[in-house]
């Protein structure tokens, strides 16, 4: 009977793959969408499904297996009907302080080892994680005996302003407390009971329920629909690009490359087939501004992409949406349909039969490194999200080897605003080298977390005052790969020439243990590296090991020297920006909070969640 059941399941899995191939096609680019649907249907990707997919597509089974193992949301082992992923990165750990839920008791279960690391990982105990373990009677990385729940950790979900947060399959739950966790588990059990045995919950999150806070007036709110597109059509491609160059718009994802120049390079390519890609894989810890734009101003993002497509000569655009934002997919698809209905997307834009540009959505499956543009392209092409070698750049050979513009959500949203109001409006704000305004995600130890807009050149002190962080002792500017600034440097300006940032500021109150902060950041990088290049793979593991070894007695002068040397090596020899910047925050903590590192760590995030290194 067991053999018959296995045959029946295998037949079911292969039939599912056959139907998905009929829907998506046999091309390599269809691989991730097919695997995603299989994973959603069954909670994992069965061997029989991978074998059938290999047979149909001609992609080696081992290669498909490698793709599945790369993305954190995929699994090769059966999991529960409800897969619970609790965020373990900075703002969610710290949020326990804000809610007065501190707990000094350590976790009783070992968190899964950080990927390739030989030393055990770091865990955080607080009422949310402890309630989950107590109610489900399992540890992290385990599934309940009845097959109903699987409990896992995840890294930043982009809900830092409403922390702590967790995913239940694709549903987002924020502002968690122990009581709220119990209510969520009870609701899951009721839903499963009413739906019957063959049940797997999918995304049903109301976008409005996790909207968050907009801290001050935004320029985007004043933009009327399609006015930027009308201006672009009146100008023509060359004038559009020149306007963006004159305005000095630089990429808002962190690298800061001039947007107008990127579009000029792409348009200049002789290849007639071009693409526009929106990088909506917002995975930097502490960053959630793009989530807000997609929630509140999705049609402004679409308008910016349409302008880009018509300007460089592309017919197709794609939004690469991170897996943690799955609940936004339906919201974005509705916005796309509204744009098509009023003739500003699709065939015959604005009634002109010669103008066509359309947009699709491509889903990520949980990989921070896919925020790097070439890793994102690899993912879209159905591969592991491993960064490519440079050169060529995507403007020359991007998606499918064709010239491709890749900008992030905020960058595209600013384009219609600039074209409507003119380059001079934008230039009048900011600094000489950092023109215009930008959005900032504020979280951590502050009274009013949320998304704020400021002109470049605004001081960190001004921003911290506005969010109610009057007693802060430090702030992490730029996320996990950013710089940790002490209070005596709060007069510095947020600008490319001073404190460059991708838009994240995490605030640390006076009682935060900066040793624990450093460990949290390095644990994140040890987990999220793609493993492709040695300096990053080994370097991040070693940095975390050195912190773990120094917790009891402190970081010594010799440790400081070794950390600096390793940081320099990683910065020089790593293949992509992840490895090149992974030690930046640690080095800045060492420089600015060296006394705390020298004393060693309690493993306690102070008024937040306790952390403990446990042995295997």
Which sheet architecture does the biggest sheet show? 5 strands, mixed
Give the DSSP E fraction (strand runs of 2 or more residues): 5-15%
Structural class comes to: alpha/beta
- Average pLDDT over all residues: 90
Total domain units: 5
**CATH topology-level name of the largest domain:** Rossmann fold
Radius of gyration: 24 Å
**Side-by-side strand order of the widest sheet:** 3-4-1-5-6
Ends: how far apart?
Answer: 38 Å
Relevant CATH superfamily of the largest domain: NADH-ubiquinone oxidoreductase 51kDa subunit
Amount of helix: 40-55%
Low-confidence stretches: 97-124, 606-616
Indicate the CATH class of the largest domain. Alpha Beta
Number of helices: 23
Instruction: Give the number of DSSP strands.
Output: 17
What is the overall silhouette?
A: globular
CATH architecture designation of the largest domain: 3-Layer(aba) Sandwich
Outline:
The chain is of the alpha/beta class and 616 residues long. 42% of the residues lie in helices and 13% in strands.
Describe the structure.
The radius of gyration is 24 Å and the shape is globular. Helix 18 runs antiparallel to helix 19. The protein has 23 helices and 17 strands. The chain has a five-stranded mixed sheet, covered by helices on one side. A five-stranded mixed sheet has the order 9-10-8-7-11, with helices on both faces. Strands 13-12-16-14-15 form a five-stranded mixed sheet. The C terminus is likely disordered. With 616 residues, it is an alpha/beta fold. It has five domains: 69 residues; 120 residues, Glutaredoxin, CATH 3.40.30.10; 209 residues, Rossmann fold, CATH 3.40.50.11540; 72 residues, Roll (Ubiquitin-like (UB roll)), CATH 3.10.20.600; 95 residues, de novo design (two linked rop proteins) (Up-down Bundle), CATH 1.20.1440.
